[in-house]
Amino acid sequence: MAVQRLPAVDALRGFALLGILVVNSTQIMNPYMSEGIREPGAAFVDEIAMWLVTALAAHKFYLLFSFLFGYSFTLQVASADRDGVTFVPRYLRRSLGLLLLGMGHAVLLYNGDILMAYGLLGLVLLCARRITPGAAARVAGWVYGAFGVILTAAGALAAWAGEESGTNQAEVAKAVAAYRGDAGTVLQANLDRLPDAVLGILIMAPGVLAAFFLGLAAGKRNLLAHARTNRSQLVRIATIGLVVGVPGAVFFASASQGPLGERWQFLGIGVGMLTAPALSAAYACLLLLLLRSSWGDRTARLLAPAGRMALTNYLTQSVIMAFVATAYGLSLYGRMGTAALMVLVAAIYGLQLAISSAWLRRFRLGPAEWLLRAVTLAGPPGERARS
């Protein structure tokens, strides 16, 4: 018997792909963004666009993806039970597959990879798979709360001391030369940044793990099934999320991109991280409300196919942006303003929505999903492998 999919999970994942593309494209195309510093001399329209990217997308969508990863973990456990197989070896193979895909992604395309983090940190879910939903939610709260408070306190100390991030023009110039050079210099630059990718996993680990556990708790309670969470609950969570998340996002963007001075940047990061889950939750609840409205079926048909092919789409986004940015293709690294980049992002995302829908009318799985499923099952995916 085929495992029934949850349209809400696929639609949320398809929506999250847009936020991931928005953030990753700026990292891939803009040397200042990838170095975590302000771009001097940017056009006003590009400053506004970068401010909006920082406020609305940065730190929000990897949390949503991580939540869905934790939720899907419960579906994978249920799938293994239905198939009558031992779950642990299957999940270990899946984690290895994610780790290897992530390493290839980081070395060849983009060092801001998230798959390595999922492959490694997902093992924590395996160890905690029998935890109760209430305990999982408490773990998520404590882990992320401590993480956010520590970051915010460190940022407040930096602001009090008048510490500024500074502009490392030498590093920017080095990155520009490497990514506009040739295929060899691009590959070498990605290899040189691989330790940064590993460090990024450590820095992101508390946020990712907290979202994993929150998703695990939600999955154990089947909260994304249509009737499990009523409309008033979704409205309440969305309202609280906006009230908490929007001011935090505004301060974060203002400290990172202006008009606040650079001495506030570290505090902005702390506040932005501390309040990011609120805005992520608001986004998710607003989309769930839309799915339950008269526009729900059309929204699900638009977003769910891309969500079913999220791994393929995620990797394809990096292929396209690496071609545009680096010497693999057009060498536009540092040459395209953020406003123009967002137009390109909208075109890429729209194309992915259309292609995903057309692909799944003919095939059950996306190419990367088929490969990962084959590794997970230690053989070609059969008819039962639909979860």
Report on this structure.
The chain has 16 helices and no strands. The protein is mainly α. Helix 1 (about 5-30) packs antiparallel against helix 15 and helix 13 crosses helix 15. The longest helix has 28 residues, at about 135-160.
Index terms:
387 residues, mainly alpha, disordered C terminus, membrane, transmembrane helix, Bact_Transport_Assoc, transmembrane, DUF418 domain-containing protein
Give a short overview.
Helix content is 75%, strand content 0%. The chain is an all-alpha fold and 387 residues long. The longest helix has 28 residues, at 133-160.
**Beta-strand proportion:** under 5%
- Largest sheet: number of strands, sense, barrel closure: none
Q: What spatial form do the alpha-carbon principal axes imply?
A: globular
User: Mean pLDDT, nearest integer?
Assistant: 90
Pattern of helices and strands? HHHHHHHHHHHHHHHH
Secondary structure: helix percent: over 70%
Protein name: DUF418 domain-containing protein
Keywords: Membrane, Transmembrane, Transmembrane helix
Pfam families: DUF418
InterPro entries: Bact_Transport_Assoc, DUF418
